[in-house]
Design a protein that fits this description.
Distance between the termini: 81 Å
Low-confidence stretches: none
Number of strands: 0
Number of helices: 2
Mean pLDDT: 78
Length: 74
């Protein structure tokens, strides 16, 4: 009986908190204006072109596996 009462209490508390998350406060008012800087596409593309190309391909697992042994000529 004690377990049943505890389970009912847990469900009631969980349902109450889930319902409270959906409510809006009455004094929210209008949202503030968007003051974030605008993205300049030309500057973005120019910055991407200035990034140098890597000389060799990056291997993120290079340290995790052993390197290949040198090939023996026949």
């Amino acid at each position: 009986m004690r377990i049943l009462v505890m389970a009912a209490a847990v469900l009631a508390l969980a349902a109450g908190s889930a319902e409270a998350q959906g409510r809006r406060q009455p004094n929210d008012g209008p949202k503030p204006a968007d003051n974030s800087p605008k993205v300049d596409e030309k500057a973005y593309k120019a910055a991407l072109e200035r990034i140098p190309e890597p000389k060799d391909k990056y291997d993120p697992w290079g340290g995790a596996r052993p390197s290949e042994p040198a090939k023996k000529p026949k």
